[in-house]
Amino acid sequence: MATIQIKGMSCNHCVMAVTKALGGIDGVSNVKVDLAKGEATFDEARPVDRVIIRERIKKAGFEIA
Questions:
Q1: Residue 53 sits in which domain range?
Q2: Model pTM greater than 0.85?
């Protein structure tokens, strides 16, 4: 399981946007976003390039801390 810190989330809509962004990456599953902690955890079927993760999070309107 991988964990990333995400800046800019403030509501459940943010949680859904981040969940959708990460869930759309090939090889990523079981995405859980914790608004209070400002983090997301997920499983990787195989190593996923962090650049791809960063780009998807940025496209959703957030930043990796």
A1: 2-64
A2: yes
